From TrEMBL:
The keyword Hydrolase is assigned to this record: yes
Region (Disordered): 461-482
Pfam name, any one: Amidohydro_1
Entry keywords, A to Z: Hydrolase
Entry-linked InterPro entries: Amidohydro-rel, Metal-dep_hydrolase_composite, Metal_Hydrolase, MTA/SAH_deaminase
Protein name from the UniProt record: S-adenosylhomocysteine deaminase
Gene3D superfamilies for the chain: Metal-dependent hydrolases (3.20.20.140), Urease, subunit C, domain 1 (2.30.40.10)
Amidohydrolase-related domain span: 66-417
Length: 482
């Protein structure tokens, strides 16, 4: 497709004819889409679409699939400067790494960190991110501006903590709830930013605030993002304090319902799984976060079987939608499938759908994005299939999950606009942002006072080598007497 250029994708209205379109009915050949005013104005058989829209010139996308963009159901945009600080660390690193890091941000560094994370997400095929609330001491609109300027759709959480949880002091409840109401009204009519509420963990808010934020979010048609049942120590603290596990406690105070977006939900009893299924709550299944810094893997195949709403989230670990879908399937296979002889583990279509339409539903945007259908936001990817990994093709959803890579992304669109072309934004200076982030990050981390349990990989290697040298010195050579 050497004749395709960014300029040809910048028209006010586009009639695109890919080799295959991934629709709710599966991969369909000989289909086309019309993109106009930020939405899919029409989707259907190519012959009909071309005849119905004679004023538009069909743009043939040879060798490409047109797919929905990925939805990251759980992100922390202002933690991007932390990067590898989380590697090799034990659980609950938010107390030692993320909270100090975010609190060391100022307005510029918070903006740059959030925009850097948004750029990484776009490069990984994400067209929507659910930002679960920053603790940076700046107006949350700084994060909104970064997402908007990058060109990514954002479900923007406002932290509504009002109780000391080991990372902060008590805050006046009425002040918190007044700010929540203001936040929910602040982005009315915004093309890319949808407000939501957030509580870091159940113990970070009073029972009154947990129930009140649930009501406010439900009334506003949005979500409350809460880290739930992620770490063993948090489950044990809740049992000691309330005699209930975190999800049970949220249910007890009236905070569980369709408005709840429970991040992680890895440590669940059978009764808690039923609680999720019966309440209509949604979950962000974060398999990479479980592998990097968690205690367990969420039972996502059980979620699918029980009809529990869930999407896939990165938790800010790695902004690559293809690798996320692969991790989602792989984690289920290792933790549940191998033990039970389940060789399918949901099949490729399960994980692809949860990374797109399922994620959109989980974050409260199910009517707006995540699908290639008329009326939905034109948030989509052009995926190059003329690669060794994808030819020959027998089962495209499985192939995208198991073998797809972000280097196959020719273009990323959000709200009908070209936001990424072959890895970089076509209308703003991505490399300059990366350079500025590299300048600011050491200053922020230096101010933060981050506490790590483990050394860097280079320091650990030297330590291991030193131990081996000492051990080798104590072992006599053949024929040597001691």
């Amino acid at each position: 497709m050497t004749d395709l250029t960014p300029d040809r994708l910048r028209e006010d209205a586009l009639l695109l004819v890919p080799d295959v379109a991934l629709t709710p009915d599966g991969p369909l050949e000989l289909h086309a889409v019309v993109v106009r005013d930020g939405v899919f104005a029409d989707v259907g058989p190519a012959e009909r679409i071309v005849q119905t829209h004679p004023s538009l010139t069909p743009l043939r996308l040879s060798g490409h699939a047109l797919t929905p963009g990925f939805v990251d159901a759980h992100h922390h945009l202002t933690q991007s400067f932390g990067g590898a600080l989380a590697f090799g660390e034990p659980s609950e690193i938010f107390r030692r790494v993320w909270v100090p890091l975010e609190r060391a941000l100022d307005e510029e560094s918070a903006y740059v960190a959030a925009k850097l994370a948004a750029l990484e997400s776009l490069r990984g095929g994400f067209t929507t991110v659910a930002e679960s609330g920053t603790r940076a001491p700046v107006d949350v609109d700084v994060v909104a501006s970064a997402a908007r300027d990058a060109g990514i759709r954002c479900v923007l959480g406002l932290v509504c903590n009002d109780a000391a949880d080991g990372t902060g002091a008590d805050v006046d409840t009425q002040t918190v709830l007044a700010a929540a109401e203001k936040h929910l009204a602040r982005y009315d009519g915004d093309d890319l930013v949808r407000p939501s509420l957030a509580v870091s963990v159940p113990e970070a808010a009073t029972a009154h605030t947990l129930a009140a934020t649930a009501r406010l979010a439900a009334d506003a048609g949005t979500v409350v993002q809460i880290h739930v049942n992620e770490h063993l120590v948090a489950v044990e603290r809740s049992l000691v304090r309330h005699g209930l596990r975190p999800l049970e406690y949220l249910h007890h105070v009236g905070a569980v319902g369709p408005q709840l977006l429970a991040a992680h939900a890895t440590l669940l009893t059978p009764s808690e799984v039923s609680l999720l299924a019966d309440s209509g709550a949604a979950v962000s299944y974060n398999p990479v976060a479980s592998a990097w810094k968690g205690n367990a893997v969420a039972p996502a195949t059980v979620f699918a079987e029980r009809g529990i709403r869930f999407g896939l989230g990165t938790d800010g670990t790695r902004g690559d939608g293809f690798r996320l879908t692969g991790a989602a399937e792989f984690a289920q296979r290792l933790t549940y499938g191998l033990a039970s002889g389940d060789s399918s583990c949901g099949a490729g279509w399960t994980w692809w759908e949860r990374a797109t339409a399922g994620g959109a539903d989980a974050v409260g945007l199910g009517r707006d994005t995540g699908r290639v259908v008329p009326g939905a936001a034109a948030d989509f990817l052009l995926v190059d299939l003329d690669r060794p990994e994808m030819r020959p093709s027998w089962d495209l959803p499985w192939e995208l999950v198991r073998r797809g890579n972000r280097d196959q992304l020719t273009a990323v669109f959000v709200a009908g606009r070209l936001r990424l072309w072959r890895g970089w934004p076509p209308d703003w200076d991505g490399p300059a942002l990366v350079r500025r982030a590299a300048e600011l990050a050491p200053q922020v981390v230096g101010r933060a006072g981050v506490t790590r349990a483990h050394p860097t990989s280079v320091a650990a290697r030297r330590r291991t080598a030193a131990r081996h040298e000492v051990t080798a010195g104590d072992v006599p050579c053949p024929g040597e007497r001691r």
